[in-house]
Specification:
The complex is a heterodimer of chains A (224) and B (249). Chain A is of the alpha+beta class and 224 residues long. In chain A, 41% of the residues lie in helices and 13% in strands. Chain A has six helices and four strands; from the N terminus they run αααααββββα. The longest helix of chain A is centred in the first third of the chain and has 51 residues. The radius of gyration of chain A is 29 Å and the shape is elongated. Helix content of chain B is 46%, strand content 12%. Chain B is elongated. The chains are: A alpha+beta (224), B alpha+beta (249). Chains A and B meet through helix 1, helix 2 and helix 3 of A and helix 2, helix 6 and helix 7 of B.
Chain lengths: 224, 249
């Protein structure tokens, strides 16, 4: 490493100014080599990301026709979602008569995890235009923070005139397990208070939809 | 609601089902949907496997590069100590004694398990020193399919009177080590998971693996950039010199 000697004397001068005697030519060279390696690593990482993306795109393409077949079958079944919900005993109790009428307009159900999966998820009910509310999407979102708390947000439903079956009255009924057939399923969207913070997250409906309704895959169904 | 009246009588037969909405057509359709569901699951598994393959492949490509990096780092005195002290989060973790011990730190190694998804280990290699017998201190994280994580850490063989991590400390599982007094080395004995439901949450491990390990030079330079190693000046000079040398070479 011949050139080093030259560098060393130059740097030695500078070295006098600074307290560190680590500054010498070899050190500089090492650091430069290290930088080159970091640059190499960055290139490798970019390549890796690109390849992963390619794989994901390829499988998205493979999934597409399968989704189409899925859609076709679902749309060939009248009142599919309503029937599906009602065939789950847990849900039978949650839908009162009015709810069932609204559910006939239910188009699809999405369950989507947050990007990093652990920090939360959202459940979206997609509706066809209907006489009950303006919205086409009703979503309830659960965010889990590192400190153990859960933040819950739900769509404020834009009920059409005279159609508010969820009824303004008892949003205060936090904690109620909705034992009565009369209470509307749709009040679920305004239940954003955690029942028992110390017990952590506990939204039965969300849990049922997310876990038990696994029959229905958590991906976005295209609107036909 | 569901279908035409004719089918309803069929349903009446199917008394076993709790809902009278289920009829023959629906059952068939649901079966078809189940098949599609199974197909999708297979496709998703394949996709995950392929992604994993890519990650494994690149880990193998990176491995020799990390080895080369290691060799170069050995010629930079106190590289890892400096990088640690220059990292905004890690700098608070080394008390004075720890810093003295870090002078004996030869290298740091972060290694994924071969299949990438089942875990990784972080190893600190030390040269013989007056503090402990070990030359390698490792902390390993193993992820199991059912979602649990097993954590193991080297039980440090401290030399007489040198146990700065101190018996009492390992009980402080979950503490964020707010005081500079607590030794970094107690990290190796923190093998209890804080909150199983939330999965692995070892901040130090995450920072080392995701932040420091990929590019420690970034932090090392930061420190030097401010103090003894005025990069800008040196770079200009070095570049001129280098260019000259390259032309010659």
């Amino acid at each position: 490493m011949a050139p080093d000697k030259g560098k060393k004397s130059k740097v030695a001068e500078r070295g006098d100014e600074d307290d560190s005697d680590h500054i010498d030519g070899e050190l500089v060279l090492s650091i430069e080599k290290l930088q080159e390696i970091q640059d190499d690593l960055e290139k490798i990482n970019e390549e890796a990301s690109d390849e992963v993306l390619e794989v994901e795109q390829k499988y998205n393409e493979i999934r597409r026709p399968v989704y189409t077949r899925w859609n076709d079958i679902i749309h060939s079944i009248p009142d599919f979602w309503l029937t599906a919900f009602l065939s789950y005993p847990a849900f039978c109790d949650l839908l009162n008569e009015d709810d069932q009428k609204v559910f006939r307009y239910l188009h699809s159900l999405d369950v989507e995890d947050f990007k990093d999966v652990k920090s939360g998820y959202s459940i979206t009910l997609n509706f066809y235009p209907n006489p009950y509310f303006e919205d086409t999407k009703l979503t309830k979102t659960f965010s889990f923070s590192d400190d153990g708390t859960t933040k819950i947000t739900g769509t404020a439903i834009k009920w059409k005139e005279g159609m508010d079956i969820a009824n303004g009255v008892d949003h205060a009924k936090k904690g109620s397990k909705r034992p009565f057939h009369d209470e509307s399923f749709f009040s679920w969207f305004s239940e954003v208070q955690q029942k028992d913070l110390s017990e952590g997250f506990h939204d039965e409906v969300a849990e049922i939809i997310k876990k038990d309704l696994h029959f229905f895959p958590p991906f976005l169904l295209e609107i036909c | 609601m569901v279908a035409d009246k004719g089918k309803k009588s069929k349903v009446a037969e199917r008394e076993g089902e709790e809902s009278d909405h289920i009829d023959g057509d629906l059952v068939l359709s649901i079966e078809k949907l189940q098949e599609i569901q199974d197909e999708l699951e297979k496709v998703n598994e394949e996709a995950s496997d392929k992604v994993l393959e890519v990650e494994q492949k690149y880990n193998e490509i990176r491995s020799p590069v990390y080895s080369r990096r290691n060799e170069i780092i050995k010629s930079i005195p106190d590289f890892w100590l400096t990088a640690f002290l220059s990292h905004p989060a890690l700098c608070d973790l080394l008390n004075e004694e720890d810093q003295k011990i870090f002078k004996y730190l030869l290298s740091l190694d972060v290694e994924d398990f071969k299949d990438v998804k089942s875990g990784y280990s972080i190893t600190f290699h030390f040269s013989p020193n007056p503090y402990f017998e070990d030359t390698k201190l490792t902390k390993t994280f193993s992820f199991y399919d059912e979602g649990t994580t097993k954590i193991t850490g080297t039980t440090i063989k401290w030399k007489e009177g040198m146990n700065i991590a101190n018996g009492a400390v390992p009980e402080k599982k979950g503490s964020k080590r707010p005081f500079a007094e607590e030794s970094f080395f107690s990290w190796f004995s923190e093998t209890q998971q804080k909150d199983l439901s939330e999965g692995l949450h070892d901040e130090v491990a995450e920072i080392i693996k995701e932040d420091l390990w990929p590019n420690p030079l970034k932090y090392f330079n930061n420190e030097n950039g401010g103090e003894d190693f005025e990069e800008d000046d040196d770079d200009d000079d070095e570049e001129d010199e280098e260019d000259g040398e390259e032309d010659d070479g």
